[in-house]
## 1
Amino acid sequence: MALLVRALWGYRELGCDLTRSAAALGVHRSTMRYRLYRVRELTGLSPEDPRSAEALHAVAGLHP
C-alpha cells in the first residue's frame, strides 16, 4: 500500500505527469501507470480526475 501512496504523492507533486513521476520514483512508466490503475481498482477513484484526486489525497493524508 505504501507504494501506491508514494505513487499518488509523486504523481500529484509533479503536476500529474506520468513520465516525470515515474522518473522521480525510479520506476518505469508502465509501473507507474499500473500503480495508478491499482489505486483506481482498489478505491473506485481515478487519480487523473481532479475531484477524485482531491479525495484520494485527503484520505491518504497528502494535503498540499
## 2
Amino acid sequence: MGSLGSVDVWTTSLLPALINFRRELHRNPELSFAEYQTTERILEALRAGGLEPVKMQDTGAYVDIGEGPIRLGLRADIDALPVLEETDLDYSSSIEGVAHACGHDIHTTVMLGVALALAKIRDAGELHGKIRVIFQPAEEKLPGGALSVIEQGLLEEVPRVLALHCDPRIDAGKIGTRIGAITSASDTIRIEVNGRGGHTSRPHLTEDIVFAMSQIATQVPAVLGRKVDVRSAVSVVWGQIHAGSAPNAIPATGYLAGTMRCLDGDIWYEAGELLDAAVRQIAAPYGVEIKLQHTRGVPPVVNAPDETALIESAARREFGSDAIELTPQSMGGEDFAWMTQKVPGAMLRLGTRTPGGKTFDLHRGDYIPDERCIEVGVRIMCAAAVQAIAEVDAD
C-alpha cells in the first residue's frame, strides 16, 4: 500500500462476521489460563482467513502475516473475569459468574479483524513486510500472561508493539492517547491476622484481631501517604475485610485484602517495601500473628513517543483529528506493561460509550460496549500496521 490510503476497503466487508464472532466470545467467556475454547475459536477464524496461526503453550495464539522481518507486534488479551453478568443481552454470558466485563472480547475481535484484513492486503500483493498479532491469555491474573508471551520468545523479533483497551468514558468513534505512563502499577495484598479470641467484655485477655485489623486498614494508607512522594499517588484500598460471626465474641482469625496502586514505576518498588514493613509495625503492639501475602503485580504501561505518534497518525488518516482525545493516566493496572518494558510500545484507549448514552464502568456486570468501536479499532490498528511497514521502507 504505497499510497497509505484508508484501509476501509479491506476492513468493511469483515465487520458483520466480526460482530458475530465477538458475540460468540461474549456468550462463552473463560477465565485466565483456561481460555481453551476461546483459543480454538481464534485459531479456526484465522485459518478460515487463509492464515497459519500458532497455538501458544496451553492457551493463547499468535499469527504472522506477510514476509520478511517483523515490523510491528499487535497484542490482544483474551480472558474474562469472575463477574456475574447483568446485561440481559441476547448474547449474555452462558457461564454463571464469568463475564467479559473488561471488554477483552472486543480486544480479541479487533485484532482478529486486523489479522484478516492484513491477510487480504497480503493476498493482493500490497503488504511488503511482516506483522505479528498476539492473542495473549490471562491479563486478569497477576502478574499477567504477558510474561508467558515474553518467556515463549514471541517478542524476540518484534521491534515495537501496540495494544488497545476499551474505555467506557470515551465515545465510540474516538480514541484516547497519551505519551508516557497511561496505566498504573498494581499489586494485590492479603493480610491474615491471628490471635487468641475471647469475650468482648474481656479484650485484655485476648489478642484483639478486629482492633488490630482496623488499625492496619486505616494506618497503612496513612503511613504510605507520609513516606512516599505524594506526586506518585500511591493508593491502598481495601476490598475485603472479614472476621468473626458474633457481636460479643472476639474472633481468633480474620483477613483484609485489597490493592496497592501507584502512578510511578520507580516509586512502586519503594512503596511495596514500605507497605510490608508498615503492616508488621502497626500490628506489633497488639501481639497478633500476621501472614502477609503481597503479590507484586504490574508496572505502569509507558507509551513511547514514536509508537504513540504511529497510533495517532493512523487514527487521523482513518477518522480525522477530532477522533483523538488526550486521555488521563488510569489508576488501573495492565500487564501489557511487561511488553513495553521489553520493546517500545503504546496502548490506545478505545471509546466504547454510545454517544449521548450511559457511561458504564469496567469490571462491572452491566458493562455494555457500543459494538461500533470494533470498526474503529480494526481500521486504526490495521492502518498503524501498514504505516509501520511503510516507515521502514522509507528509511
## 3
Amino acid sequence: MSDSQTFCIYNAKVVTPETTLENGYVRVENGKIAFAGLPPELPPEKRNEWDAGAIDAKGGWVIPGFIDVHVHGGYGADFMYSNKEVLDTITKFHRDNGTTAMVATTMTASREALDRVLGEVQRYMSEPMPYAQLEGVHLEGPFINVKYKGAQNPAYMIDPQLDWLQDWVAKYPGVIKQVSLAPERSGALEAIEWLRGQGINVAAAHTDASYEQIEEAVKTGLNQAVHTFNAMTPIHHRNPGTAGAVLSLDGIVAELIADCIHVHPAVMKIVAKAKTDNNLVLITDAMSAAGLGDGDYELGGLDVVVKDGQARLKEGDSLAGSTLTMINAFRNFIRHVGVTLQEAVLLTSYNAAKALGIDDRTGSIAVGKQADLLLLDEDLNLLTVWVKGQSNR
C-alpha cells in the first residue's frame, strides 16, 4: 500500500452527491478530500504544488468507496474465526474489490462464540487498520426463526435475550452496529426498543413474521431488513408478508444481494423502484469462498458446496451466502437493473454510510471527508482503491 496521502486525480468523471463532473479534479491532502470540482485556475507556482503526485484518470470514473454492511468473510477466511490474520485477510480481499468500509457479520452460534468475535473485532478496531475499515459487528442471529433458517445453524436459534445484548453493549461499547432477528419471536419487541435506544440498527431476518407483525416492529424501532426476499415470508397480493412490508414501508432500509442469483434481476428492478428514499443498500453476504474457486467450504459450522459461483448447503441445497464482491454488485445493478452510475453509487456507498451513521466522514465525495475513493475505467474495471488516502497500488 502506498504511503502517500497527498495527491490529485485529474481528467476524471467525478461522482459527487449533487452531480457527475466531466473533466473533474479531486485533490487529497493528508488522507482527506481537500477539493472536488472542475480543475481550478491557479498561478503556475501553485499549479506545480497542486499537481504534485498527479494521477491521470484518462476519462475514467472516480467514485466513493463501497460500504458493505453484511459480509461474512472472503478469500478463505470467516469472521466467526476472527483473529488478526483472519481480519487482515478478509479486509484486504474486499478492499482490493472496492470495499473501503464494512461490518463484520456473524452467524447463528453460541453466546461464547459470539462473545469471542466481538472481542477480536474490538481489538482489531482499536489499532490502525491497514485495509478496508471495520466499522463494527453485525449480529445475524441467533434470535431468528428456524422455519426460515436458510444456512444458519438451528441448534443455536433462540428467543432474543435482552441480558446478552445489554452485557455485550456494556462490554464492547460501540462495536455492535446491527442486530438481525425475527421480530415475531418472544421478547423481540423489547429487544428492538432497547437496541434502537442504544443507536443500534435492528433488521428483520430469517423471519416468519406477517405484514402486521413487521408494522408493529417498525413502530417499536425496527429499521432494516436483511437480504430482502431471502429467508422471509414472501409477498402475496392478499398476504404481503415480510417482503411486502419491506417494499411498502419507507422506514425500512432494505438490504439486497445483487448477484442475480439470490434475487432475479426483474425483481431487483422492482425493489429499486419501490425503495427510492435512500433506503436501499446493496450487500454481498459474501462467505469465505468469495475470491476462490468452486469446492467444499464451511459456513457457521455447516458444510457448503460452491459450484459455478453459487454457494449452497451440502445438505438441503439452501443458498449459503454468496461469492459476490461489491464491485460486481455495483456493475450488476447498472447492467442488469438499468440504474445510472450515479444511482448505483448511492446504493453501494452513501445509503450504507447513512444507515450506519458515518455519512459525516465517508460514503460520498465531499471536501473534508475521508479519501475513500475508487478509480474505475470507462468499462467499470476497478483500477485503484484508496482508503483514507492510502492506495492499494
## 4
Amino acid sequence: MAQPTRPTPPSHTSAWDPHPEPLPLDSAPLPEYGSGSLADLLPTLAAGMGVPGMSTAIPELTPTDRNCVFLIDGLGWEQLRAHPDEAPFMTSLLASSRGGTGRPLTAGYPATTATSLASVGTGLPPGAHGLPGYTVRNPDTGELMNQLRWQPWTPPGAWQPYPTVFELAHRAGVHAAQVSSPAFANTPLTKVALSGGTFHGRLSGEERVDFAAEQLAAADRALVYTYYAEVDGSGHRYGVDSDTWRGQLMYVDRLVQRLAEQLPPRSALYVTADHGMVDVPFDEEHRIDFDEDWELKAGVALLGGEGRARHVYAVPGAANDVLTCWREVLGEQFWVASRDEAIAAGWFGPRIDERVYDRIGDVVAAARDDVLLIASQREPNESQMVGNHGSMTPAEQLVPLLEVRS
C-alpha cells in the first residue's frame, strides 16, 4: 500500500451553498497495516530470531540475532526531516529507514501514544488489541476510559488479553528486556502493551541507552526496547516550532548516537516513534470548542478520543442524527464516519474483535486540516496543548524506522 500523502482539498462550493460536500472517506490516507505499520515491526524482528508464530510483515528488514527498538515519543517523520541541524546523526540515517528504502512506517489510527505502544508491543492493529483511542467508552460501565492513564481502573488482562511479542520471545528463549523510566514499571499500559522478559527502570536517557546496550549483549538472541518521552512532552507544551522542542531533539539525537556506538556484534538498532505532531493556532478558526457548540453537542452522550481523533457516543437512537450534524458542521475539515464506515474503511485495521466494537464511537471524526476539536470544560488541560496528534495526516501518521547495524 502506498504511503499516505496529503489529499487534495475538495473544490469549495459557492458561498451561498448551505450544504458543502463533506470529505469523502476514501480520501483518508490509511495506515499500512500488515506491511508497514508499527504493529508489523516486532513480529518481523521476532520472526527473524525464530520465535514461533511470528511472521515477516516488513519484508525490507534483514534478520539478525540481537534487535533493539528505541522509541522516541512524538518524533514524526516530517518533523525529523525538517530539522537536520538539530538532529545530524538521525538525519544521516534517513536513507536507512525501513530497511534502506528511505521510507517511513505508519503509526496506525489513531496516531496516539496508548494505541501505538499497544500496536508495537502486541504486534496487532488497534481493532484487535483494543486500545483504539486516547479515551474510549467502556461498554461494560458506560464510562469513558483513559487508556494512557488507565482511569478509571479496568482489569488489564480483560481489556487487552493477547500476549505481547516480548512474552512470546521470552517463551522461545530470547532474552527480552525493556529499559524505560522507573515510573512505568508497573503501570497497566506497560502490562498490556510491553510486558514480557524483564523491565529495568533507569532515570536518565544516558543510563537507559547504556543499559539497553548491555542487555542487547547479554544473550546470543536478544530483543530490547527503550523509550524517551520528552520530545512529545515539549511538543505538547510548546509546539514543534519551539526552541524547547528543538533542544529535546538535539538531546535525543545524541542519545541515539550514543546507543549506536555501543552495539554489540550481530545487532540492529531501530529508531522509531509512536506518532508525529501538528501545531494548532489558538484562535476560533482552528480550535472549535465542542463545549460551546450546541449543534455538535446535540444527541451526544460522551465525547471521547482527543482533539484530532474523536470518538462520539450518541444517546440511544440519535447516532444517525449526530453523524449528519457532524458532517454538516465539520465535514470540510474532518473525515467524519459512522462506526461501521470507519471499520469498513480499515481505519483500525483489517479486523475488529467483538470486545472492541462498542469501544469505537458511534461517530468517528479525524482531522484533515490543521484544526482541533477541543472541549474547554471537559478537557481543560488537553485543550491548552500547542502540539497535537491523532489523525491520519502525514505529519501525524508517518514515523521513521532508522537502522544501525553492527
